[in-house]
Sequence to fold (228 residues):
Amino acid sequence: MKKITIAIDGFSSTGKSTVAKQLAKHLGYVFVDSGAMYRAITFFAMEHGYISKDFFDKTTLIASLTAIDLAFHFNADLGFAEMYLNGTNVEKEIRTIEVSQFVSTIAEVSEVRNKLVEQQQAMGKNKGIVMDGRDIGTVVFPDAELKIFMTASPQTRAQRRFDELKSKGDHVTFDEVLQNVEARDYIDTHREDSPLVKANDAIEIDNSHLTREEQFKAVLLMVDELLN
Fold:
């Protein structure tokens, strides 16, 4: 059976991972949340005191990259793979607003990006993969058969993120989340190494007013056209 590579890029909290998981499950493909990999390294940096609101020891983090082992392990109960950092499940820890505040800064570091892009490309060498992130269609898989670029208004994305965090019991305000979304947008689109841009051959989807089901059906139609 023909297999393709599906690259889903876009701004934070646009539901990239949600639709990527749906597609991977439907197609029997491997799903990779590249953002989880950057979040895991961010969590590592926070745990070791390499980064805080007023401090970032980039040199020591770069020197420590060889001591970082990242792996995805499938959780049958959840139906998707979880992020493991040096053998420990950190799926819950990497999804906090605290990690979100620093992840774009960590993702600016070229040595971090080089390490992760190499791993991501190895994961997709046999195709049959759905990967979401910021530079999947432009850097990781520039030859992907299907590239999607997802966007929505900052307010819509902040509301989604706020609702998600509140449902997990996190104590955050909407304004705090909105500021984080806008700050990440700026850093992601202005960094020198692999900034967030829409690939020339990517299909843009503004899901500000789409339900998850409507979004999934629209993307699945694109996939079916390529496979049939």
